[in-house]
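Continuing from the previous page...

OK, I double-checked the sequence for Autophagy-related protein 9 against my notes and this is the correct one:
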Amino acid sequence: MHVSYVRETDGGPRCSVMFNAEPPGFEEGRRFVSDSEDSDGENAPIHNVTQSHQRKNRWHHVQDLDSFFTRVYQYHQQHGLTCMVLSSSFELFRFFFIVWFSTELRHCVDYSILFRDHDNEHVTLFDGLKNRTECHKSIREDATWVFFLLFAFFYGATQSIKLALRLFNFLDIKNFYQEALGISAEKLEHLSWLQIQEKLLDAQKLNQMCIHKEELTELDVHNRILRYKNYMIAMIDRHILPLQSRVPFLGEITFLTEGLRINLEWLLFGKHLNNPWAPFSSFQLKPQYKRRACRDERAQDLSKRILILGIINLLAMPVVFIFQFMWTFFNYLAVVKREPGFLGMRKWSLYSTFALRHYNELNHQFKERLSRAIKPSNRYMESFISYSLVEIAKLISFLCSAVLGVFIILGIVDDDFFRVEHALSIMTLLGIVLGITLSLIPDDFFVPLHFELLSLVRDHVHYISNDMIADPKSPATQKKFATLFQMKLAYIIEELISPIVTPLFLIFKLRHRAPEIVDFLRQNTVEVQGVGDICKFALMENKRSFIDSQELYGDHQSTGLSCPKTDMSLVNFSVRHPKWKPPKEGQELLEKINDKLARMTNVNDRSLFTRTDPLVASLSPLDSCLLAPPAPYLGTISENSTQSYTNKTQQTLAQSMAAYHDLGSTSHRMATSLPAENNAAFEDSQSSSVPPALTKSSA
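Thanks. Re-ran it with the corrected sequence; updated structure tokens here:
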């Protein structure tokens, strides 16, 4: 792989013209980025395939390979053209339904007729509807709602046009699957993405979709699909984006919502809607952002753009908030009524989808990895029990059960009881309170296993810091993990207040970080032949000849989560793509991990007899309640989590990550826990079926 790093020059042309200031010879070095010498720049179509009688077929020399590969991936993940059309159409229909239904409820219903005392008068729902004349008059008199409807109409029309263009683009992708890959719609469901990707790489050799490299690698495809996602992961990992804030009475919180994410991606990368002022143009960082001499000017310009975007968000706040509130109301109210404990359930936060994600990890791979950690994560958070709150919940649940039981019996004896004023309302309220309190009371046989559960979570999510593992019961660890695995109630509240907080975040926080953003883009952008400008961390180049245990197991300077993300990403990508050839430094790391795995396997073979003893096996609290089919036993609780994997790739990934952590932790534990003369004894302890950390914790 040929990689040329961006050169920083103090001289060169002036930086005042965004698109015209280019260093000498820049045009020649830029040609492969646009993948077309006759491209018309920003006016080029999103996806265009050049035609020529000299070329083999219409898939030769695709202009925008980023969009092309992304659509190939989405076509597979969304199960073909029919499902994609239905999903996009129904999403647009839901938007129009929310706008129409909200308007009807606000202006076209006479609530005085529905709620008044009718005695014996028979009233239907249609009696509460106003006639169309009164309804339209009420709408015209509400200036705020008229503005909301105009905004909704403009947005809906834009999305309808995008849906039509999306349909034509994916018709093209369907033809590509059938003609170039030889995959029909019937076969699509039976092939994995890795099989699709292998066929895609073979199609490159035949059709030369990218004319600047004869053969593409798996890493090239992933860098094309995840170009901007890798930048976002790196900026959050390096704390370039100031997502942490200190709030009175709440302490330090991390705020990242869907609305804020869309604003950031549009501002920096021009995603979702064309942005001619974004630092990136197509898949190239604009030359002004690559030159150190233009740093101050680019920072001032970016700060001004952020301010303008914040003001636009502030002006649109009433409209966006109305829609966000109505969408939340329609989406969650029935669910909460049916299942009161829904708000107390947990999900991975939007912040965790960047903090816990490897570089070059596709969406389905990331979701697959985190889905296996949901059960132990729930159990870990349930291990933090407030016993005083449990006693209060027991008392309230007893009182609610007693009153509700009497009401039910009275209703069974005589159903006229349910016609008593507020009887049904009281029973509904008691049922909701009872459901909430019962969810706070743990099972009588519940045993909190903080260390074991958090270790198990780390084997799935990979990014859990050493400080959290060392003190899994502390409130600080609980708060850090709750940032990643938040309650659904917290998620709903964050999304509701997002239209209000997002403009304030842009104006008062992000705007002042413009110089750091410009520096990050300049210092961490590399140019790769056949791919374009990408984040240098996405190359996964390991420059160290050994793993620094202090960096690995100390509090990560970037996120406070775990070990170097590039190393972990390298291990993850190598396991998932065995045919990929990593760089030399990365190969050395993988060889160390393979050696460690071989030693682990020998140790496990010698200690296997302890595993087959029924009495010894019964001592593991995680053996049956969390973990599914047995796999070759490894020597630590962390490695024991490989039993929860269902295929060889998942198991190998878990074992490799355990070996990687052990490579960094061995010297750290020797230096901090044992005298130098006891090194041999420490190595012998690695063969034990119980890890030293667990023994210390149990004691």
